[in-house]
Amino acid sequence: MTKNAFEILRRPLVTEKGNSLRDEHNQYVFEVATAANKIDIRRAIEKIFDVRVEEVRTSVVRGKNKRVGRNVGRRVNWKKAVVRLRSGDSIDVFEGV
Amino acid sequence: MKVEVQPVSNVEVKVVAEIPTEVVEPAVQERLREIARTISVRGFRKGKAPQKLVEARLGAQVRAEVAQNLFEENLEQIFTEAKVIPIGEPEVEMGEIAPGEPLTISLGFEVMPEVSPKDYKSLEVPATDPAVDDEKLQAELEKLREKRAQFVPLGDDAVAETEVQVTLDYEGFKDGEPVEEIKGESLELIIGEGRFIPGFEDALRGAKVGESREFDLTFPEDYGFEKVAGQEIHFKVNVRELKQKQVPALDDELAVDEGHSDLEALKQATHERLLADARAEAERERNDALVRALIERNPMDLPPKALKAREEGLRSYYLSMWQSFGMNEEFIERMLAEQGSSFEEEAAKGMRKSALLDKIAEREEIEISDEDFDLALARMAEERGEPFAKTRAWAQQDGNDERLRAHLLRDRVMDKLIEWNCAPADAPEAPATESADEPATESAEE
User: Fold this and answer.
1) What is the CA radius of gyration of chain A?
2) Which of B9, B123, B136, B232 is 20 to 30 A away from residue B443, measured at CA?
3) In the predicted model, is pLDDT for residue A79 greater than 90?
4) Which are the contacts of A47, defined by CB distance < 8 A and separation ≥ 6?
5) Cα gap B216→B176, rounded to integer Å
6) For residue A30, what is the enclosing H or E element?
7) How far is it between the farthest Cα atoms of chain B?
């Protein structure tokens, strides 16, 4: 499957937890396309940010059940990727946005 | 802080101040820290967002805010370092505020031009010699008599003639219909004064008390009340009373009524009053001439915006003063024009005078000491009839003391100008004028 790197990576997740992962383990968290696999994610990150990826861990975040009045709805599932970089590499988009 | 002064013209100055990065950056960071402690950002608990993230999001805003604060804090210091006294509100231009860059603030404003007053000890002022001649005195006494005049009823066989006051009821008709507005009772008018429309008084001549008359008169075209202007009106008039004006004789009795012991005393007092008026007037004229001469010898440009502001201030001041007497703006302007002046010229004169007097004070080292100031305050307290402490408290409010001080200083310089330029001629009359006590305090300290 050849996919555009920018279609695979949806957005960086900037959170408190993500920050501490980055500081302690040089890991960066992204929301990625649900169809993407670890290999796609590794390639996409290496291509876009010009870094070396050591490890990719993914999980599917189940959409929550939400109700608005009597209507019951469900949020979509999405895939989260935690990427560990070679020590010394970094991605600086996390500093901003 | 680096401050650079760039004169634009002799009444305009541009000051460029640079606040160094070492001052700007910590202030920005401090503010960011504050914000980071309270702000909620998605993905972080409230107040837990990293400062860097906050800077990335709100940096530009915070920098602008800090720049504004720094500007306000440093404004006074900028003026002090630039050694300029601004007039009016400065035009502010903030430079770019990028991280790690110093903050540049550029201020454009007006200043009084540099002048070094000259010739102020050799001004030529025409000598004035206030005097009261017999004619003026007589005229004044006549006025007094007029004021005390009484109207005494005349007998039945008297008729309306010149100088007789007629009390009458009147009614006007147009084409046989009564005109509502032309109707009145007990109107008093003196024949010969011509206060009503032409012909009206003449139509009354020869009338006796109780007599009724009817006559037609045409109102003038430019009569103030439009409904009847240029119209022919039929009048019905009933004469109620005829009175003769009686002016009291100029004698001891009149003098006693006026509160004097006899006629001689009245004449004396009137003469003194007139002389005091004439002297005050002469002094005013002389001071005015002095200021004019001083301005003439020391031409200077004026900052246009400040002049405009002063002109407006003057306008509203005059208006507030005279409006209560029913005068409007055009009237005052016409009055000034008659004296060959205008609000603008008055404003310009005032500004030039203040600037020159201040400069002279500086050069001649004329100062208002604290004692002088207290003395002036005490005099004010007396004039206002309030305790000294109250006046003092007033002086300490919003810059009143500064203004009062400046005012006193200028008055004192004026006194000095008089001393330098017209001392010999005016010396004998000095004790009689209002400035009598001021030279006294001055000589006491010298």
Assistant:
1) 15
2) B123
3) yes
4) A5
5) 12
6) strand A27-32
7) 113
Q: Are B278 and B169 in contact (CB under 8 A)?
A: no
Q: B442: pLDDT confidence band, cut at 50, 70 and 90? A: very low
H helix intervals, B179-262: 200-204, 252-257
Architecture of the domain delimited by B263-445: Orthogonal Bundle (1.10)
**Chain B: closest CA distance from residue A1 (Å):** 32
Do the Cβ atoms of A95 and B53 come within 8 Å? yes
Mean pLDDT of B176-196: 79
Crossing angle for the helix pair B400-426 and B388-395, to the nearest 10 degrees: 110
**Mean pLDDT to the nearest integer, A27-32:** 93
Topology (CATH level 3) of domain B151-246 = Chitinase A; domain 3 (3.10.50)
Euclidean distance between CA atoms B344 and B333, whole angstroms: 10
Q: Looking at this protein, which amino acid is placed at residue B17?
A: A
Most confident of B15-24, B29-38, B109-118, B324-333: B29-38
Arithmetic mean of pLDDT over chain B: 79
Q: Which of A20-34, A60-74, B364-378, B431-445 has the lowest mean pLDDT?
A: B431-445
For A14, which residue in chain B has the nearest alpha carbon? B43
pLDDT at A84: 94
Q: Is A14 on the interface with B (CB under 8 A)?
A: yes
* B232-246 and B212-218 beta bridge pairing: antiparallel
